[in-house]
Amino acid sequence: MKWIALLAMSGSLAWAQMRIVPHLTRANGGFETVILISNLVNDTQTYRIRPYLENGTGLPIVSGQVVPGAILRMMPSQLFGAMDVSHFVIEGDGDVNITLAYRDAKQQYSAAHVPINEQQAERFRIFPGELTDVADGLAVVNTSDSPLNVRIRQLNLAGDVLAEASLTSEPLDPMAKALYLFNDDFAHQEGSYFELDAGGDMAVVALRFALDGAPYFWQTAAIPMAPLPGPEMVGWVAVLEPHFHGVSGMVTIVDERTLRLDSFNYDGLGPDVYVYVAQDRDFINGMAVTPELRSTPYNNETVLITLPGNVTLADFNSVSIWCRQFSSDFGSGVFAPP
To answer: Could you tell me if 175 and 270 lie in one domain?
Structure first.
């Protein structure tokens, strides 16, 4: 039995859509939020905003009109009154635009202007600053219909998991918000990055500010990613269709971290041969996921392929014994239910 580490990054992405502001700063918290409502067309527009408490409780809709070319500048108390609003959803089309300005409450430093969030996903990747110099924070809203356990992992560039934490101690309810500082659970490690995984859609805004007494704000990129494959893919099979060098066998998805290549045959005589993965058998643009197979013959053998921490089965749907030198497929298959 041979053990092979598998590494791949490829995939197709589709995002949920909701126009949402995931974060209004808390009153008396040292920071403030200014809401800028703009009319982008040439006739009067009506804005409709559904506010929420931090626990996800919906509040009555707030509405108003904006004349052509106008920009309304409001504090949350002016727009929502005494309601302790945590975040809100903008209803209707995109002719009314909303921008948020985050700054220190004393207005001594420059504000960060942040657009509304229009892209939700189950997973996000975030590249941190120097955690010894800045505070990297998140506001996360559960935009799915079920409570979510949001996991946070710190990984190095090889995909190894360095540390893990949970966003909250209890599941985050639908439309509820949680705030988080990476500095609370993680130490700075050069070249590392973070991934959030919730198993359901969430809206994320990432903000950074300095720790040296000058609370400048920046918005940092929260990059949406393809969701992890669901349990339904466990047990799927790719049968290798033989082409050259006696290649045959069957690849089974054992679990979310393991593939098993059964009854694998290969005469070992091909040059520059690797196991490749790709979407829809596009192996020319695929990726080698094993070391070179060299001249080793395989005779009805079993090969276990273990995926590293940053790779999911959503990254590819086909596998090949591939000769890179001549771009030749010695045998390949597409994963499908048995």
So the answer is: no
